[in-house]
Description:
Blueprint: E1 2-4, H1 11-25, E2 32-35, H2 39-46, E3 52-54, H3 57-62, H4 64-73, E4 78-81, H5 87-96, E5 101-106, H6 117-124, E6 126-131, H7 134-143, E7 151-153, H8 169-178, E8 186-191, H9 200-213, E9 219-224, H10 235-247, E10 254-258, H11 263-269, E11 272-275, H12 284-291, E12 295-299, H13 304-307, E13 313-316, H14 321-332, H15 335-352, H16 355-370
Parallel strand pairs: 1-2, 1-4, 2-3, 4-5, 5-6, 6-7, 8-9, 8-11, 9-10, 11-12, 12-13
Helix pairs in contact: 1-2, 5-6, 8-11, 9-14, 12-15
Amino acid sequence: MHICLSNGWGGLEMYPSRIIPELRRQGWEAHGLALAGSRVAESLEAAGITPLTVASRGRALLGLGRLLAYLKANEIRVLHCHKSSDLRLGALLVTLRPSLRLFFTDHMGVTRPKKDPYHRWAYGRVTRVFSISEATRARNVAAFPLPAERIQRLYLGIDPAPYAPRFSHDERAAMREALGLSEGAVAIGLAGRLTPGKGQRGWVEALAWLAEHRPELAWHGVLVGGLSAAEGSNEAFVEELRARIHALGLEGRIGFAGFRRDLPRLFEALDIVCVPSRNEAFGLTVIEAMAAGKAVVGSDSGAIPELVDAETGRLATPDDPAAWGEALAELAGDEALRRRLGEAARRRVQAHFTLERHVEGLVAVYADALS
């Protein structure tokens, strides 16, 4: 049973519904516990399971008897939490039924020590913590009250098939036109929530550097992400970005694509994908762009250097617009280099970052714990 009692919607909340079809394909029966009416619950339904729902975390704690009865009736022996706030529930269930095995994936990257008596009790019931990168694991080992051998790096993965190119020449041209891209312009995209931590501010400054120092290059920037709070953005930050783009005289060269559900097809219209966030715990957008065969420029911090190397893209310091501008200039001026990096990036995802590979690693640990 995957437990995610969150009303939010991001990579953490999407994770259970993303892996459940692959869990089922590999022979495991999956269940879910979510908040009633949440997008997590809706996504589990869409993935083909009817989740058990509760009105709140408090209601879940008050309904331990109901949860234990459900676990027994469905012969569930593995619990997997995805928010640290859900560990209290998981630890209580394991305390009441010691035959259960409890797992926790740290999707965010812990930022402060968790070694007080409560966390020692809760994490003491966890069979294994999964860290989604080596960078995250290093922080987990330092922060969690667990021996290092109970904290395992397990990279996330995606199904690369949807990212394979599908557009005809005319379809790609139509998508580029809809994005406001002129013919022959190198499309430089950044996909993600429009919030300060994702690095859009520095990216705009890098494009300003590019315009000033390499005026001969034809390019167009595309910001992909919701523009309203309902779509996960910081609306004040969106307005700040608009104002800065106007002040730099780049309104005709940087556009806002808004929230998109067709990211694999959008990647087909782009030539370079940027991920300038300072401290990614993993970087799903990175491997999605790589699976689409795109050259990636990413931050040289967090987990991104574990995904991107000189054979598949370029790395630059997040707060250095000149370094970013130089990397973008190199790729914007060399179509053959972009193609070579993109092809190597696609192969790297297929070899190391598939959803199938991720779930194989996950269920191997489940099976070992149960045996």
